[in-house]
Amino acid sequence: MEKLAILGEKGGGGKSTTALGLAVAFALAGKEVAVIDTPGKSTDAAIAAAKVADFVLMPIRPQMYDIETLDKVKDVLTLAGHPPSAVLINLAPQQGRRHIETQEELTAIGFTVCPTVLFSRVAHGDAGNIGQTAQEFDPKGKAAQEMIALYSYIATALYPKKERRHAEKHAGRRA
Question: Does the pTM exceed 0.85?
Fold first, then answer.
């Protein structure tokens, strides 16, 4: 079983929402999923998760307080043996260029940046209020489509070509 770790050194960056959304996307694609949520600011848990991960995703908001935490996350990745990883711009404002500027800055300082951006969408909160993810709450909505795009990116990193094509083909299937 391939393992994805979703790490961050700060609460409120969307790690749990991202993990749940990806878990639903992988389940819809026929993959077995187990969601283990670890707290922000737990370096030991982050190192342990990164060491066993096939890929590490690091969601951050496009603001200085979150960007500054990436130095510590980089240290965690070093201690974990440099697993493949990418920063996810999450909870981005729907207007303006902040997400683009953040992607450019992170690329310039040496981070791989996920090409998918998750924007701040009310569907995530509304879905969570009733125990669902955005894909379950509004399968054709923008939040669901962004999560499916993120799933496709992660599937590309985790699975060989044959498996990846199968996963991408089934990413939009509804239960």
Answer: yes
